[in-house]
């Protein structure tokens, strides 16, 4: 761990510097023109093409958010299927630790970052919102869009995939991140900097202390010893214990949908 402290601190400094590059300059400095250009690029077609407006509405519907959970689950499942019984339990408990870390990092970021701003669809007046064109439930605005918790959760997922499954898993996880985080930017529910600054800052500061120290491994070991079949059987009914421990494998539910519906 001592050997990694300098790298952890370097990543933390990079996160703070990234945030300051956006927070300190008047009107967010160079970030505002970038944010504005990206938003108007995608928003221009809303009033021109009804099909395009429908596309944005669909990929920002809650059902599409559920697809992001399915994509993450499929990636983890691909490694789970290759693992022996003990390895499968390890992967499932790793998912529990990932969920715990994501919730804590997200909550700390939401409370510690001194920022509250409306999404671009509410900030600009000369635009067309998707909800004004398409009668379909979709997320096209937010009164407080910073930091992007949707992107934050996906980046934390990618970090855990890299830590426990390697670069190939990271590559797939980053594709999932782009596919499912950027629709919010395209529709105007988030600024680009909500993710590029807000989400990334939180991950650069929080994730290294979880994944580059023994913390995540110790938490996995703790839950592994706590959530044995014998212990589960003592606190739950036999039927429930059988459901959770299918063929000796602990199944951990991932209750993170609320983060993807904001």
UniProtKB/TrEMBL annotation:
GO molecular function term, any single one: phosphotransferase activity, phosphate group as acceptor
EC number, as in UniProt: 2.7.4.29
Residue ranges crossing the lipid bilayer per the database entry: 7-25, 37-56, 63-81, 87-109, 169-189, 195-215
InterPro entries: LpxT (IPR032908), PAP2/HPO (IPR000326), PAP2/HPO_sf (IPR036938)
BP GO annotations: Gram-negative-bacterium-type cell outer membrane assembly; lipid A biosynthetic process; lipopolysaccharide biosynthetic process
Catalytic activity: an alpha-Kdo-(2->4)-alpha-Kdo-(2->6)-lipid A + di-trans,octa-cis-undecaprenyl diphosphate = an alpha-D-Kdo-(2->4)-alpha-D-Kdo-(2->6)-lipid A 1-diphosphate + di-trans,octa-cis-undecaprenyl phosphate
One annotated Gene Ontology cellular component of this protein: plasma membrane
Keywords annotated in UniProt: Cell inner membrane, Cell membrane, Lipopolysaccharide biosynthesis, Membrane, Transferase, Transmembrane, Transmembrane helix
Its job: Involved in the modification of the lipid A domain of lipopolysaccharides (LPS). Transfers a phosphate group from undecaprenyl pyrophosphate (C55-PP) to lipid A to form lipid A 1-diphosphate. Contributes to the recycling of undecaprenyl phosphate (C55-P).
Phosphatidic acid phosphatase type 2/haloperoxidase domain span: 94-210
Pfam family, one: PAP2
Protein name listed in UniProt: Lipid A 1-diphosphate synthase
Localization per Swiss-Prot or TrEMBL: Cell inner membrane
Protein's membrane topology: Multi-pass membrane protein
Family according to the record: Belongs to the LpxT phosphotransferase family.
Cited CDD domains: PAP2_like
Pathway: Bacterial outer membrane biogenesis; lipopolysaccharide biosynthesis
